[in-house]
Design brief:
The protein has 331 residues and is of the alpha+beta class. The protein has one domain: Replication Fork Single-Stranded Dna Binding Protein (Replication Fork Single-Stranded DNA Binding Protein, Alpha-Beta Complex). The protein is 30% helix and 17% strand. The strands form three sheets. Strands 1, 2, 4, 5, 6, 7 and 10 form a seven-stranded antiparallel beta sheet that branches. A hairpin with a 2-residue loop joins strand 8 and strand 9. Helix 2 packs antiparallel against helix 3. The longest helix is centred in the first third of the chain and has 20 residues. The termini are far apart. The relative contact order is 0.20. About 16% of the residues have low confidence.
């Protein structure tokens, strides 16, 4: 039985881990600002000179599982609470994705449309820049990182506002221009019980980077945003993704023994197993942990109407086993 000193030491260790995690805010969580507040961001160009944009697009699947299958070997507690596991979509790397191809066919049947939207890829966009006005600054336990160049996980709703302004012929300079750029004002409101950013907008006046911001650029440099995308799955990992997809559709629990070294729920680290060698761990999970919060802030992620097939008469069941039968019949 552990002593009181052992318990105190363990609690102190857990508390330190919590503090370390909460202060690791290289990702600026604009979705945590209060309703009615405005955060002012100044976007910077990508550190990759080959990228024609100042952002990169990220496409992820979000597979729901009906809880976690416990494993005392890895210290995981069984749970019946639904969890989400994020999986990279291959079209993020310019390749055809078999899961996306399958889900696309579900939109031909109105009875399967809700299921299709549930499993359709979720878009977000990675940017970087300075936070020029932070309504969260000064709040309890809120720390500003040493490097003031932050990364931003931008939802489709906000990205649409950014994109529309770029195609406006009256815009003469890139918003990222260091001398004549524009700030972007993220205004959080509420609509239908969810956070809404539809009134976010660019500042009307151009402005130059400050001496402090230029100094930070010289000291820290720009991020290569593509380095923060999830690692591209290899053939073996694609087989695991397919297995996870079918298990999710069938309403099974997440199995850490099968999938723990590949993809894990939010907040759970990848594991090593004796039978397999875990793939190299990239920096991408940092973004992955931030994204579920953003998803709650902007839940409407509709299917691209160009990609979604035309509707067909309702003639199929939404039963998970029926869907799985259709999937397997094509293999």
């Amino acid at each position: 039985m552990p002593s009181l000193a052992d318990i105190r030491a363990r609690l102190a260790e857990q508390d330190q881990k919590t503090k370390t995690t909460s202060s690791d805010n290289k990702i600026y969580a604009h979705w945590n600002i209060n309703e009615g507040d405005t955060a002012i961001l100044r976007f910077l160009e990508d550190g990759d000179p080959e990228n024609p944009y100042f952002w990169v697009e990220r496409n992820l699947f979000k597979f729901p599982f009906q809880g976690i299958k416990g494993s005392t070997k890895h210290g995981v507690q069984a749970s019946d609470k639904e969890i989400i596991v994020q999986i990279p979509c291959m079209d993020m790397y310019g390749e055809k994705d078999p899961i996306l191809d399958e889900v696309r066919t579900w939109f031909k049947d109105p009875a399967l449309e809700d299921m299709g939207r549930k499993y359709w890829k979720k878009r977000s966009y990675l940017f970087q820049g300075f936070v020029r006005q932070d309504p969260m600054e000064g709040s309890k336990d809120y720390e500003i990182p040493e490097n003031p160049i932050r990364r931003f996980v931008i939802s489709p709703q906000i990205f649409k506002l950014i994109k529309n302004s770029l195609i406006d012929p009256e815009l003469e300079e890139l918003p990222t221009d260091q001398d004549n750029g524009l700030d972007f004002r993220v205004l959080k409101t509420e609509k239908g019980g969810y956070a809404d950013y539809a009134t976010s907008t660019w500042s009307r006046k151009e402005s130059a980077l400050t001496d402090e911001e230029r100094a930070a650029l010289g000291e820290h440099g720009l991020y290569n945003l593509a380095e923060f995308l999830p690692k591209k799955p290899d053939a073996k990992t694609l087989e695991i993704i397919k297995e996870m997809f079918e298990a999710s559709v069938e309403g099974e629990q997440y199995d850490i023994e099968k999938w723990g070294q590949f993809y894990t729920p939010y907040g759970m680290d990848k594991i090593n197993t004796e039978a397999k060698e875990a793939p190299a761990k990239a920096d991408a999970p940092v973004e992955a942990k931030a994204d579920p919060v953003e998803a709650k802030a902007d839940p409407a992620d509709p299917v691209d109407p160009v990609e979604a097939p035309a509707k067909a008469p309702a003639n199929a069941s939404t039963n998970a086993q029926d869907i799985l039968t259709r999937i397997r019949s094509r293999q």
